[in-house]
Amino acid sequence: MTIKDRLSLLKFSNKLKNIKIIISDVDGVMTNGDLLFDDNGNETKIFSALDGSAIAMALNAGIKIAIISGSKSNSIINRFKKFSKINPEDIIIGTENKLPTLLTLIEKYGFSKEECAYIGDDIIDLAPIHNAGISFAPKNAIKEVKKEANIVLSKSGGNGAVRLAIEMILRAKGNYDEIIQSYY
């Protein structure tokens, strides 16, 4: 965590500690944004294992995780169905207008906007970023998203951005060290 990340953690600590659900985009956030296609036209994505470990940590801490992606790639469903604590209904793909989906997820679980974190990197993420209690943008996000997000992370999408956001939330909640100790 860089000094800038630590300052963001301090500045937004009160908002971060209230988070009960993390909703994230995929392309450019959980991946580096590159799209790989095989000769048959099947799309493949490369996900960060570091992000996956942090997602498991968040789930074990009782934080819900949901995915909203404009992509219709089955690789997204295949990646997140490996997490038994993620409700398969909360993996939403092929959604260009993400705000109604974000609001539905918040309502579904009885959370307020202030209890929702959103991580996005591109123009279709602007509305959710503006309407979440706290919002993150990876280092490689477009400038409009960086301008709107509460926290611009020091990590790029596909290179630990989601992990950094989750670590900030867990540290603000005061249970990061306890979770790390549980792995010993």
Structure explained in plain terms:
- The chain has helices at residues 3-11, 13-16, 49-60, 74-80, 98-108, 126-131, 143-148, 161-173, 176-181, and strands spanning 21-24, 36-37, 43-44, 64-68, 91-92, 116-119, 134-137, 151-152.
- It is an alpha/beta fold.
- The strands form 2 sheets. A 6-stranded parallel sheet has the order 5-4-1-6-7-8, sandwiched between helices.
- Helix 7 links the parallel strand 7 and strand 8 (151-152).
- The protein is globular, with a radius of gyration of 15 Å.
- The mean pLDDT is 94.
In DSSP terms (H or I, runs of 4 or more residues), the helix count works out at 9
Strand content: 5-15%
Helix-strand sequence: HHEEEHEHEHEHEHEHH
| Cα radius of gyration in angstroms | 15 Å
Morphology call: globular
Low-confidence stretches: none
How would you classify the helix and strand content by structural class?
alpha/beta
Distance between the amino and carboxyl termini: 22 Å
Task: Estimate the mean pLDDT confidence.
Answer: 94
Major β-sheet annotation: 6 strands, parallel
The largest beta-sheet arranges its strands as: 5-4-1-6-7-8
Helix content: 40-55%
> Quick one: how many beta strands?
8
Offer a quick outline of the entry.
This protein is an alpha/beta fold and 184 residues long.
